[in-house]
Amino acid sequence: MKIAFLGTPEFALPSLDMLYQSSHELGVFTQPDRPVGRHAVLTPPPTKAYALEHSIPVFQFEKIRLPEGVEALKAFAPDLMVTAAFGQILSAENLAIPKYGCINVHGSLLPKYRGAAPIQWVIINGETETGITTMMTDVGMDTGDILLVDRVAIGENETAGELFERLSVLGAETLKRTIAALEAGTLVRIPQDESQATKCPMLKKEHGKIDFNKTAREVHNLVRGTNPWPGAYALLDGEPLKIHATLLNERDFGSAQMGTLRGDAKSGLFVRCADGWLEITELQASGSKRMNAKDFLKGRPLEGKILV
Fold first, then answer.
1. Which of 146, 151, 173, 256 falls between 20 and 30 A from 266, CA-CA?
2. Domain span at residue 253?
3. Domain holding 271: CATH number?
4. pLDDT in tens, 164-191
5. 162 and 278 both lie in a single domain
6. Whole-prediction pTM value?
7. Which tens digits make up the pLDDT trace of 196-246?
8. Residue 204, class by beta-carbon neighbours within 10 Å (0-12 exposed, 13-18 middle, 19+ buried)?
9. 70 touches 32 (CB < 8 A)
């Protein structure tokens, strides 16, 4: 089958690799190269790098719904389009091009968590289960008919980065079964239940700011859900303190102002939240490297300090 693959970040790579290994004729449509890092080095998207390495044609557009993008898709003449974290909205004109339409690999159990950052938000919101949904793309935001669903449990301490990797691999497996069913003529389309639909916003840096008036579990979930980006943080003596990892625990240092720190290099570091104390296991002060909290405390005691 001739497939136009529309994807950009690492999440898309297992699906792209699966299609390549399955000997489909591919063209990769992706975002333009972007400046990356402190020195703003112009860097290709991961899917472009993969495509060039495997001699797959690459097409890059800022907005594929504009005339040049539409014409490129028409010229490629795919039987099917597949999207995986493409990062752009497709037009009705885009979607009308392939004979079999467009299948999207989405990192949530639709209709819940429609939008750009479902993997992060399921963790931030304390969900214990998520998964992959393949769906027929329409002009709405993740509103098309559901095709196949695979579910996974979320670990209590699992980060968004770790879940991202697991779901990217699962997404390729779900997509493989979806395309096999399409080719066999057995694929069933199930309309989404709009009464169950939820949306999640795109993550911004300010979403990582910790509010210690929330419960320990809520703070723990925020730390996990914003790891690796945008990262959870609070202010210590007016300077940002990144909190990379935390653990729920049963320690009790009594009542204290929200954000109060207790502990030492032997016992560890604990912060007061609305319903108890949360252990901080990895942190990073401004201008310093990421450190284990106990090692950090050897050089900078924080007993009695307050995070805001």
1. 256
2. 205-299
3. 3.10.25.10
4. 999 999 999 999 999 999 999 999 999 9
5. no
6. 0.95
7. 999 999 999 999 999 999 999 999 999 999 999 999 999 999 999 999 999
8. exposed
9. no
